Amino acid sequence: MHPFLALAAVVGGFSEAPTPTAVPQPPEAAFAIDSSGWLTIRLTDGGRPVPGASVRCLVGTHVYAEGETDDNGGGSFPKPTSGTCQMVFDMGKGLAAPIPLTFIDKTRVVPTSAAVRDGSLACCRPSAVPPTAADPPRPAPTPAPVWPLSLAGLGIGVAVSALTLLAIRRYSRPPASST
Hints:
The protein is of the alpha+beta class. It has a domain at 28-113: Immunoglobulins (Immunoglobulin-like). The protein has 2 helices and 10 strands; from the N terminus they run αββββββββββα. The chain has helices at 3-12, 147-171, and strands spanning 28-33, 38-45, 48-49, 54-59, 62-68, 74-78, 84-90, 99-104, 108-110, 113-115.
């Protein structure tokens, strides 16, 4: 070891850079439109073909085509006329996340390749859905205040009493004498 590196190791805790670890790459699907207008698929994992994988082409919710990849990880079927579709693969570890495809004119498809998340990765499996909490209880309705009704009743009572007294007074006077 170089003397400066030895000194740095002692003084500053210098260590050699860690060896990077390879991150496994997910399988990949390649898409193309061949000269006869068919959609061709090639499924690889680490550059090696994936034979026998289940392939399903969905147009909306309808299964347009389905089958398995051949020994070279490939397959083909007539291109959907809808302009879009979704490809779903199953390599034995669970359904992959759908890959949306868009057809541009009669000769191109976008994307030309995409990672296939095979259902074994944490990002692609649905987690347990926690139970939904019931709606919180609604508070009991607050009763209407009583005082406005009481005040109205009192007002009506006073008015009726006043009218009654006026009527009694008017009709209970002795007739005027005509002397």
